[in-house]
Every structure is written in C-alpha cells, then in structure tokens.
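If you are new to this repository, start here. Below is one unmodified record pulled from the training split, so you can see the exact layout before writing a loader.
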Amino acid sequence: IALTPATAIMPLYWGTMTEIPYWALTFTGIYFAYQAYQRFRFRDVILAGIFLALAYYVRPEAIVYLGAMGLILGIRALAQAPKLHRLAYPAVLGLVFLLVLFPYLYQVRQVTGTWTISQKVGAHFATAAGLASGRFQQFDMETWGLDSSGQEVRFFSTETADATASEYIFSDPIGYARTIYENTTGLLRMLISPHLLPAFALIFLGLALFRKSWSRARAWDELFLIATLLPGISFVFFFVQERYIAALIPTLFIWFGHGIVESGDWLVGTVKQLLPERQARWSGWKQLLWLPLILLALFMLFYTPRQVATATNIGSTREVHDLAAEALASQIQPDDI
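And here is the target side for that same chain:
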C-alpha cells in the first residue's frame, strides 16, 4: 500500500490533501469494527464508532462506512446466538458515532435550523449528470450558476441543500439510470488504471480469492472485506472521481498482497517439484516466497515516473484558472457561464 500510486503519489495531485488522514481514521475504525465482528466486544465497537466519527469530520462520506459496518455487524449478529444481545452492537456503533458528532450536528442546527447528517446530498445529485456524462459546461452551470434568488451559486444555495434525493431521481428517472450506468463504467475505467489499480493486479486478486477453497471462517472474513467496498462503490449513485473511489484501494490491496503470497507459495512448490535435488542442497530455497513481492516493489518504484506523467488532473484549481479569472474579471457578470 505504501508504494501504490493511490497513496504515495496521487493525493498530491487531487488537490484536497484530505485523503490520507481520512483513510487513516476510516480504516482504523474499520479495524476495530472487524475486531467487534470477530469477538463482539463493546470496547471494539465503541472505538470503531469514535474513529468513524472522526473520519466524518475530515470527509462526510465516512457516514457510508458507518452504514456498511453497521450492516455487516447486523448480519453477523443475526447468524449467531444470542441474536438479540448481539444486535445491540450495531446500535451502539451508531450511538457512539452520533455522540462524537453531536458538536458538529448542533452547530449545523444553529446555523440552518434543521438537524441533518449531511448537507451535501442535494449538491451531489444536482451536479451528478454533468460530471457523469463529462459535459463540463453543464457541470459548471449546475454547480456555479446562480439559484432562483440570483444571490447565491447553486452549490452553496439552500435550494440545492434542501432538495431531497427522491426529487432529483423522480424528476428524470431515465436520465438518472443513465447517470448510474455512466458512473459504473467510469468507476471501472478509473479504478483499473496506473493511478489506482494496475491491470496486472487483477491476476493476483484472482489468485487470492480463488486459488484455495473457502472455509466457513474465511467466507465470513471475505464478506467483511466486501462490505468495506460498498462505500466506494456507492459513488455510482452520484458521480465518480479518482479521489473518491481510491477508498477501494486498501481492501483491494489486501487481496493483492494475498495473491502475491499465493504466487510465492506456488513458486516454492514448483521449485520443490521440478528441482528436488537442488532444493535439498540449498537451505534458503524457501526464501523464494519473497521473490514476487520484491519484483513488484521494484516495478512500482520504476513505474512511478509514468504514474506522475499521467497525473494531469491536479485538482479543482490550477494556476491557469487564476490567470483566466484575472483576464476575464472586467468583462463578465456574476451569472455568466
């Protein structure tokens, strides 16, 4: 994970620099949620709630991880006795999350007059069509055009914040279905790329998941890992950007690393079968297990210049934008696009 471009390089070009602390807090919360998933201890679920709430303070999409962890804990609780007692754990997770988040929620209530977890749902739906289709003029109008009052841009307008998801969806259900389809194809295109997950990694993911049959315990573990992918995948309902779906990378790299171990195990076993005399004379032959990992690390290091060269999207604001704004400032009106 330390060498992959999604964590080592791309955050420098996405522009917000919030990804690393967000991932650190989120996956610490997921770690404690996994401990609760395995042993059902209140200490673990309380820590999971605390860290997920702290992640929310960095980026509000952490709320989706709360839902995913609550869902998987609930499924595990229903599969084991005593069910009623264990169902308290996802409830405690949500309660702790809300308690840690309460100062922020109260401040929002003081400013807006409403209790709400996220004020960005309306903005996400309002800008989804333009981003999903790649029509940036439409996106600019949806985001930075003026609302009906003529006094506020749509992204920060209360009209956008107060609109519900159902209003956007049912106003054009066919168009929204098209948005989901375009976002899904965009997610796959962005995910399997030099910036996030190299295409050759799919081979190792296949080895990790399917080289050996699953026991009941491993099936539960894999189900938990799949649950950690749901928040990143959920962006297909809004719009997809690299810095959003990069949250998929830690889980995918767990499988990637497992696949590398499996390939090393295959290499050791193959050498043992093909060269039994030599491996008997060489005491260090089992160190071949590390060869695929070393080769991958070297590949990543030498591949870095190409990854940097393709990182053309360096964030929402570039120097050329500032120059354009200065040149156009005297010639445009606030509602011009």
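Two things worth knowing about this chain: The radius of gyration is 24 Å. Residues 23 and 247 are 7 Å apart (CA to CA).
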